[in-house]
Amino acid sequence: MSHASAGPEIERLIALLAKLPGLGPRSARRAALHLIRKREALMAPLAAALAEAAERITICETCGNIDVASPCAICTDARRDEAVICVVEQVGDLWALERAGAISGRYHVLGGALSALDGVRPEDLSIEKLLARAARPEITEVILALSATVDGATTAHYVIDRLEGANVQVTSIARGVPVGGELDYLDDGTLAAAVKSRRPF
Distance between CA atoms of 12 and 129, rounded to whole angstroms? Predict the structure, then answer.
């Protein structure tokens, strides 16, 4: 779609912004105009940050996290519990758990979930690397922090089966009522999961 009075450079900026998740052509146009209006304060620093990130960012060879070094800062942090590995689907899930300060151990990013529909097979995910890590003598627990979807459950069952020979306890994050959540506003699946994962008071 052509934008009247926009040169090819601006067209390219809009087209690239439109590729970002959550941004369609209209949002991309608004974002582009905002960047152009704030060229010194926003566009120049953003361009510099993007260039630096593109040059320096790497994927951690141990856990699959995104950082500027491999192994990443989490894998090399001696204060973390080296006996625990928390398994997540994507880096965004790792970041969410880190924001919450919920995990004291280390992580393993699978790179997705098993999905017959999308053709994602075990060999497409970082499962063999997880099994190798879990087999190390210092590992005592593997926490599965996978999404509460059919694919997430399929992945969890597959990983549990494959970890059977390893001398580790496999746990899963509880599903259920969010902190501050009122029962009346929750969907049936969440309520059912909350009741299922009940524990002594």
Answer: 39
Identify whether the C-beta of residue 103 lies closer than 8 Å to the C-beta of residue 129. Answer: no
Q: Are 98 and 89 in contact (CB under 8 A)?
A: no
Contact 190, 177 (CB under 8 A): yes
Please check whether residues 85 and 107 belong to one and the same domain: yes
192 and 140: one domain? Answer: yes
Residue 3 is assigned to a structural domain of this protein: no
Task: Answer yes or no: do 20 and 48 share one domain.
Answer: yes
pLDDT digits over 3-48, tens only? 556 689 999 999 999 999 999 999 999 999 999 999 999 999 999 9
Half-sphere exposure of 124 (CA within 13 A, CB side): 11
pTM: 0.82
Q: Look over the chain and give the mean of its residue pLDDT values, rounded to a whole number.
A: 91
What CATH number should be reported for the domain holding residue 151? 3.40.1360.10
